[in-house]
Amino acid sequence: YRSIVFREFTHESFQRIERYRQEESECIASEQLEQQTICKDDHDKHRCMIKSSKNETKEPKRMPNKELAVGETLPRVLQHRFPSELIGEPVEEIDSYYRTDYAFMVINRNNTIFRFSATSACFIFSPFNYFRHLAIRILIHPLYNILV
Q1: Which top-rank group of organisms is this from (predicted)?
Q2: Residue 100 in contact with residue 112, Cβ under 8 Å?
Q3: Half-sphere exposure of 145 toward its Cβ, with a 13 Å CA cutoff?
């Protein structure tokens, strides 16, 4: 948790997500090209299949951090580091699993984690729209949770 930095979700954050997605797609494309090259060089299909299965097991599958799941409270270590001016405000994703997803987080007063999509809602409201911001404020309010 030492490397986690809390930053407000801005237009630059959205561009950063797009850059991460592009880097990941380039990495996947280069791995697939490498696999195809290995299979072309290798005449025995059985050996090609064995090599591809070995390459798949080398890279561990990424998993989301269970402590940073939606509805969970922010871990105590991070609660002390979370700036009070960002309570109720959109924050950049801190879980590396969601780094390439169009998503942002909102932490309420009770340090509960909420995660929202950074894509346009109903194809109309961008993540920076005033009405969407108002709807998020209502959703994260503790009184709303009591009523629902």
Answers
A1: Eukaryota
A2: no
A3: 11
pTM over 0.85: no
Number of structural domains in the chain = 1
Dmax over CA atoms of the chain, in Å, equals 66
Sequence-separated (6 or more) residues with CB below 8 Å from residue 96: 62, 65
Q: What is the pLDDT of residues 18-48, one digit of tens each?
A: 999 999 999 998 888 888 876 666 555 555 5
Pick from 110, 66, 117, 118: which is nearest to 88 by CA? Answer: 110
102, part of any domain:
yes
* pLDDT tens-digit map of 64-103: 999 999 999 999 999 999 999 999 999 999 998 998 899 9
- The answer as to whether 2 is a domain residue is no
Rounded-to-10 torsion of CA 36, 41, 47, 50: -30
Whether 48 maps to a domain, the answer reads yes
Domain that holds residue 102: 7-148
